Amino acid sequence: MFQGMGNETETLNADFGFDPKEVNFLFLSHAHIDHTGLIPKLVKEGFEGRIFCTPATKDLSEILLADSAEIQKHDADFINKKSSVAIDSVAPLYEMEDVAKAMQLFETVEYNEWLKVDEHVEIMFSNAGHLIGSAAINLKVTENGKTTSITFSGDVGRYRSALLQPPAEFPEADYIILESTYGDKTHDIASNTIDNLYRWIKKTCVDRGGKLVIPAFSVGRTQEILYSLNQLELEHRLPELNYFVDSPLSEKATAVIKSYTNEYNERLQNILKIDEDPFHFKGLKHVESVEESRQLTEHKEPCVIISSSGTADAGRVKHHIFSCVDEEPNTILMSGYCSTSSLGGRLLNGARKVEIFGDSCDVLAEVGQMKSLSAHGDQDDLARFIGCQDGEKVKKVFLVHGEYLVQQELAARLNRKGFEKIEMPSMHQEFELE
Questions:
Q1: Domain Metallo-beta-lactamase: where (predicted)?
Q2: Of 296, 304, 308, 198, the residue nearest 253 (C-alpha)
């Protein structure tokens, strides 16, 4: 699902570029909505195949897709109510019944277990370290007695994640499809998320008496923020405020993530020995109903609000930004990557006016960014991830999930590592493998 692409978003989500009825299998790397968000639409348009993923990905996908359907309906109703056009002028991409039909097609596979899905195709998931349940997808495709190995990286995590185990090595592949989100950057490992978060809370809420609104994806990013706030409490540095998580999805996702402690890294495993819930602390309140969320937009006391989505283009956080972006004491603190055309991207690029729900809003609140929270590996991480492969044996690397100029820089780095044949496909471009 495309989000935050401005006027292009609707067009990009409208057409798959293939006939869903002709697809036999869907191999799913992880649950984030940019990877799962159009599955119910795929089913709605005729896909009846099997969907393979890890158990955690299935659990997270179920709650994410239900939430996506609900958000689309809520946003469509909100826009139609404000519009003088006919009430059905904006329609969601799919509804809850489409989500239910899609979930019936899911089948789970554990990490590092080869599964023969038909006479030609075998699949194995290896840990990608990006999110609970995230996987690189390793395929063996056999035709006319010849086997071709293909690996899709999914989203590659960081080797110094606050919560998760690092990405695993994967089998030698003939072809690799590699994400490239941060292919031109290196994360600042000296930047301390916990200290940065403390500074933003003190500056906004304690010193200025404002509201700190943090757009954060409900799965992965919100839990990292809660973990950091929990650490501040353990260090007796957490300011006495109300900390709201305004996303029912986040609470459900946190419960799922707590049930997969075997995927936590060694440091978090040790913290669990002294703190049975690393995502809870004094002052934390979960906002459930839409009515409670509306009341929170009118809340005038200093507080911290964590709400999705991370790019601020959809969900409840958009309403919170709408209510506080024109007041100087407040801060909008982005928690990760935002495309330049998303609301979060426009705010980060210094826009003095932004359009939200059709209204033009002055940007008087401070805008900041927590770059240290990214769950995507940087250029060094991506080079390390692919480093388990023999560059001479890999026939081609396809760079996806990133901007073209970024891919060019990553391609140059991979060339130096011995990967000579690199493609940067355009949308719907097709390739024939040898």
A1: 3-194
A2: 308
Whether residue 309 is preceded by a cis peptide bond, meaning omega within 30 degrees of 0, is yes
pLDDT of residue 189: 65
Tens of pLDDT, residues 405-419: 999 999 999 999 999
What is the DSSP secondary structure assignment for residue 165, as one 8-state letter? P
Q: Which residues pair with 25 in a beta bridge?
A: 50
Quick one: which of 356, 420, 372, 407 has its CA closest to 197?
A: 372
| Residue 407: both structure tokens together | 């891919």
Provide the whole-model pTM: 0.86
Kindly give, in sequence order, each residue whose CB lies less than 8 Å from that of residue 175, ignoring residues fewer than 6 positions away: 148, 149, 150, 151, 394, 395, 396, 397, 398, 433
Inter-residue contact 300 to 209 (CB < 8 Å)? no
* Fold designation for 6-185+375-423: Metallo-beta-lactamase; Chain A (3.60.15)
Distances (CA, A) of 394 to 108, 391, 426: 29, 5, 21
Query: Amino acid identity, residue 177?
Result: I
What are the residue ranges spanned by the domains of the chain?
Answer: 6-185+375-423, 193-373
H or E, element range at 9: helix 9-14
Distance CA 407, CA 50 (A): 32
Q: What is the pLDDT of residues 108-121, one digit of tens each?
A: 999 999 999 999 99
Q: Are 240 and 203 in contact (CB under 8 A)?
A: no
Cβ-based burial of 154 (10 A; exposed 0-12, middle 13-18, buried ≥19)? buried
CATH topology (fold) of 193-373: Rossmann fold (3.40.50)
**What is the model's pLDDT at position 88?**
54
Mean pLDDT of 290-304: 94
